[in-house]
Design a protein that fits this description.
Elements (H helix, E strand, L loop, with lengths): L2 H5 L2 H21 L4 H21 L10 H8 L10 H15 L9 H22 L1
Helix pairs in contact: 2-3, 2-6, 3-4, 3-5, 3-6, 5-6
Length: 130
């Protein structure tokens, strides 16, 4: 399978998303650091949304902003709007977890909220492709 066909297969996006889910859970369960887990949950949601776009044969830019992906999905699956709180929450973990700066350390509770939000996005996407 060519690289282009791999990128255009929604199941490949979901597989990569599942890797982020596993990594996030492992880091969360270790209980020592939480920012990387939050990052993986944000990435998980993004890959599920991109997989959904691929499923519907929609192009998307190379972007990590979940609200931007939501905009691309709105005309196909308007119910995505019901998950805006989750997308907004997870978006906050992209930049803040990647670069040092003036942000608080993330707690276990915040990380569990990120995991719950990402799993809700996953469930939504999987229901849409069935």
């Amino acid at each position: 399978m060519t690289q282009d066909k791999i990128k255009k297969n929604h199941l490949n996006w979901f597989k990569k998303a599942d890797e982020d889910e596993i990594a996030g859970i492992e880091i969360l369960n270790a209980g020592r650091i939480f920012a990387p887990a939050c990052f993986h949950f944000q990435q998980m949601a993004g890959k599920y949304l991109k997989g959904l776009l691929v499923f519907y044969d929609k192009e998307f830019p190379k972007v990590h902003d979940l609200l931007e992906l939501e905009l691309l999905l709105l005309e196909i699956v308007p119910e995505i709007k019901n998950y805006e709180n989750e997308l907004d929450l997870l978006n906050s973990y992209y930049i803040e977890t990647r670069y040092p700066g003036d942000y608080p350390e993330f707690t276990k509770n915040e990380t569990e909220q990120a995991m719950t939000a990402a799993k809700r996005i996953k469930e939504f996407v999987l229901k849409k492709i069935k």
